[in-house]
Amino acid sequence: MDIGFIGLGLMGRPMAINVARGGHTLHIWARRTASLEPFAQFGAHAHVSPAEVARHADIVFTMVADAPDVEQVCLGEGGIVESGKRGLVVSDSSTIAPAAARGIAARLAEHGMHFLDAPVSGGEVGAINAALSFMVGGEEAAFAKAKPFYELMGKSVTLVGAAGAGPVTKACNQTVVAMTMLAVAEALTFAKKSGVDGAKVREALLGGFAASRILEHHGKKMLERNWKPGFKAWMQQKDLRIVLQSAHDLGLALPGAAVASQLFNAMVGSGLGEEDNMAVIKLIERLAGLEE
Amino acid sequence: MKLGFIGLGAMGRPMALHLLAAGHELSVYARRAEAAQPLIDAGAHRCATPAAVAAASEVVFTMVTTGADVEEVALGEQGILHGARPGTVLVDMGTIPPGTARRIAAKLAERGIEAIDAPVSGGEVGARNATLAIMAGGKAEVLARVRPLLETLGRTLVPIGPAGAGQVAKACNQMIMVSCIEALAEAMLLAQRSGVDPARVKQALSGGSAASRVLDVFGAKMAARDFQAGVEARLHHKDFAILMNEAHALGAALPVAAQVWQQLNALMAHGWGREDTSGLLRVLEGASIGFSSARQPSGSPQERA
Q1: Is residue A98 in some structural domain?
Q2: For residue A63, is it within any domain?
Q3: How many domains does chain A have?
Q4: Do A203 and A60 share a structural domain?
């Protein structure tokens, strides 16, 4: 099938490659043309605009940074809306606010196109290993068309509800991830300041109720002081802002997420924004008077 | 002087009346026509659009709720931009994001129109008594021109810096004030749950290091369980979204303010947005259920009615 893919960064590149490996023809566009080069070997067609991608594709996937980028790609000048056929399915896996997703869905619907908000969890590793989790909002029929492609890129695919349900689920996901990241960072710093071996603490905890994927993977990397970015701190900061803005609009108190958001603010403000979000442990260590 | 005033709500109305009482000629506009009536009765001219107000005025004051409202009034199709002459001054006294204030000032400057952001602290009482604390951002020479007018409205006027700086000061003001209200509410809860009279505790504290304006004003309201709005809590809720967005953009950690924001969210969820921010006490009481139901919040809107 002819598949459009827009946004070929840290996450988008491996996702698109997994679709190409499934035997599909890719039509691609990226803001930086250098991002297009790795796709020559897959016989992908590079286009000059999202509109051109849409003209050639049956389904278009997008993976860009923020809501304004998604809006630009879908609705802006040279955007998908200009040339997508009626019935075109557009699936966006960026992390944006539920309200923004609903707005884009409504605008595309005016042109007979179907928008699926399909954010993912699993990070770069999940994208490379086709092990992402898709949480999708939108219409059932459109979801059915996109599902086989989600399955090429991920392991778990859930249609959560109508438009906006994907970003709501992603916001829930980020709430849990950010606070768990912080909890693991605090626990390992507790151990360190107490003169107890963090690696042993982690091992002990993995057998009990505090066991989690974050303790397992990120806890290990924190102990190894391996800060190679998968999911950068500034991205976590951005996602928590979406969480807290939505909470504000809903009249919903999220005290834990609020604390976490401030620590990620501090990361960005103190020059740690480009590091992985697990480097939040550096802030906790600093507060504990533990220098690196 | 020929002045304009746009936004004649709980704050704007008494402020506009002070300018009129000081002998100025006043043109007014309000989205709801009836809001302008007390001013018309007092001798102000009614205008159909913000642009018409600007065309008739040397200085235009605005006191509307959100950044989007100010943008519409200043730059919209029928906005000040389209009625003002070069040299006209816009003085916005609402609380809006610093970035919005900077953007409006830059846009107006393209046409030679001056802008001052001059948010206030002091609430409705301060507006009525002309005792507001005014914090101003904008060019010094422009501020000098409007200073006598602002002194008609407030007791203190502090120039903070360039465009947007007044709004930064206001964000700081809101952060401290509402965080203090939350601290006070927690103290009142502690006293109450300990079986001690919160009013006595408040009285004792007034003489010591915890003394503050917030303790005086909001402590009295909490002790009397009077949750009728001085300033409506929904406005503080709105302000917190502004200041937490600034914190995000700046990469600044404001952990306490972030918590207070969540308590305000909970207050909104209870439907208490149009009551006083001292209602933060009721949020805490709700979160401590399982204690004595006899001490549950009173003074709900129904009871007051």
Answers
A1: yes
A2: yes
A3: 2
A4: no
A155 is catalytic: no
Indicate which residue of A170, A232, A238, A282 is catalytic: A170
- Which of these three, A161, A180, A202, is where a domain ends? A161
Residue A2 CA neighbour count, 13 Å, CB half: 12
- Cβ count near B10 (within 10 Å): 17
Q: Which residues of A223-248 are buried (b: 16+ CB within 10 A; e: fewer)?
A: beeebebbbbbbbbbbbbbbbbbbbb
Stated pTM of the model: 0.83
Rounded to a whole number of angstroms, the distance from the CA of A265 to the nearest CA of chain B is: 4
CATH number at residue A87: 3.40.50.720
Helices A280-287 and A255-269: crossing angle, nearest 10°?
Answer: 90
Residues A199-215: tens digit of each pLDDT = 999 999 999 999 999 99
Asked whether residue A70 is domain-assigned, the answer is yes
A99 φ/ψ angles, rounded to the nearest 5 degrees: -65, -40
Say yes or no for a CB contact (<8 Å) between B248 and A258.
no
Q: CA angle B273-B274-B279, nearest 5°?
A: 60
Answer whether A196 touches B (CB < 8 Å). no
CATH of the domain at A272: 1.10.1040.10
Predicted interface score ipTM higher than 0.90: no
Question: B271: how many CB neighbours lie within 10 A of its CB?
Answer: 11
Model confidence over B70-90: pLDDT tens digits? 999 999 999 999 999 999 999
Q: DSSP label at A84?
A: P
Task: Nearest chain A residue to B247 by CA: give it.
Answer: A265
The answer to whether B251 contacts A252, with C-beta atoms less than 8 Å apart, is no
Q: Which domain holds residue A102?
A: 2-161
Give catalytic residue positions of B: 170
Q: Which residues of B touch A237 (CB under 8 A)?
A: 248, 251
For the stretch B113-125, pLDDT in tens is: 999 999 999 989 9
* A248 contacts chain B (CB < 8 A): yes
What residue ranges define each of the domains in chain B, with the CATH number in brackets? 2-161 (3.40.50.720), 168-304 (1.10.1040.10)
**Which residue does chain B place closest to A237, by CA atoms?**
B248
Going residue by residue through chain A (292 aa), what tens digit of pLDDT does each one get?
A: 999 999 999 899 999 999 999 999 999 999 888 999 999 999 999 999 999 999 999 999 999 988 999 999 999 999 999 999 999 999 999 999 999 999 999 999 999 999 999 999 988 889 999 999 999 999 999 999 999 999 999 999 999 999 999 999 999 999 999 999 999 999 999 999 999 999 999 999 999 999 999 999 999 999 999 988 888 999 999 999 999 999 999 999 999 999 999 999 999 999 999 999 999 999 999 989 997 6
pLDDT-derived band at B286 (thresholds 50, 70, 90) equals confident
Let me know: does A262 contact A182? Beta carbons within 8 Å: no
Task: Report yes or no: A259 at the B interface, CB cutoff 8 Å.
Answer: yes
Q: State phi, psi for A215 to the nearest 5 degrees.
A: -60, -40
